[in-house]
Amino acid sequence: MAITSAAKKALRQNVRHRAKNLVYKNKIKNLFKEVRSFILQKKIKEAETLLPQIYKALDKAAKVGVIKKNAASRSKSRIAKLIAKSR
What's the domain count of the chain? Predict the structure, then answer.
């Protein structure tokens, strides 16, 4: 348990930051799941329409520091490659 007031404040901040970060991570995760399900169903057009949303979510998460810039780039590349391969 936190003893000093600074440690207590840090604990409160961690809870708030974690909640905000999970919003970004869950958004990315759900979009990826959606695209993968479209690819499995051979609905390539629908998967392609979600691509800008994925890019936007990844870029925003990288901007605010939830994920690193190169991790976002790698994810964008992999999902684009997956869609292109499934055509």
Answer: 1
Q: Which CATH number belongs to the domain containing residue 72 in this structure? A: 1.20.58.110
pLDDT digits (tens, 9 = 90+) for 19-31: 999 999 999 999 9
Residue ranges making up the domain that contains 46: 5-86
Contact between 39 and 86 under an 8 Å Cβ cutoff? The reply is: yes
pLDDT at 1 exceeding the cut of 90: no
Task: Give the separation between CA 43 and CA 34, rounded to whole angstroms.
Answer: 11
Asked whether the beta carbons of 67 and 61 are under 8 A apart, the reply is: yes
User: Which among 22, 31, 82, 30 is positioned nearest to 52, based on CA atoms?
Assistant: 31
